[in-house]
Amino acid sequence: MKKTIREIFYFFFLALIQIFSIVANYTAFGFRDFSTFENVLVVFNTVDLVRDYTYLVFIFILLSMLISWYRTDKEKKIRFTGDFLYLLQDAGFLRFKPKKKQFKIFLIFLALFVSMYLFRLPHIISLENLFKNFIFWIPLTLEEELIFRYGLFKHLREKKINALIVYIIASLIFGSGHFYKDGISGPFESLILGTIYGLFFQFAYESSGWSIYTGWLLHLVSNVLTIYY
């Protein structure tokens, strides 16, 4: 019973962290349409991006506190600084050990993913703008990877739950967070696309041996190149 209650509170606090992330980012950027680089550039020039990177640090702190509270075994009962380092390790910042069979399949999907975005490369007319675009999306995409891929997906995969069910549930939750009109797609299209991308990012994360960089880089590149049409 205590384990169930602890699990419920874990997901409750994880949801609160996601809400904090959304509120913090929209407080900084407003409900803006980021489907064109011109709009991103306006925000880049008028909003102090230090705030958004500060929010990313808070996400790290909040997740570290949550993990510190949730992990109950003696080995993981360490001071906050230790929990922060544990978060870096457990989320996959310090490792890359691909699962051979899964990673081969991932490489095939990666080739399809890359080919899908190749036609957008000729539209990149300024390396400076491309750099600014990356700077803008780095904290936002990393926050989502930490919350959805590490906090939610990896947590569920460690449980005795059918893998297919975990993949579907986690990707649907991620997709539901994109239920809005972004200037290119309508709410339902965004939900479907978000769910599909969620599946891909999850598979990238797991097949790389739980290295956060794999899914994060794909997520980052996807967001950066999506606006180039």
From TrEMBL:
InterPro entries assigned to the protein according to its UniProt record, in alphabetical order: Rce1/LyrA-like_dom
Domain CAAX prenyl protease 2/Lysostaphin resistance protein A-like: 135-224
One BP term from GO: CAAX-box protein maturation
ATP-binding among keywords: no
Keywords, comma-separated and alphabetical: Membrane, Plasmid, Transmembrane, Transmembrane helix
GO MF, one example: endopeptidase activity
Designated name of the protein: CAAX prenyl protease 2/Lysostaphin resistance protein A-like domain-containing protein
Species this protein is from: Athalassotoga saccharophila
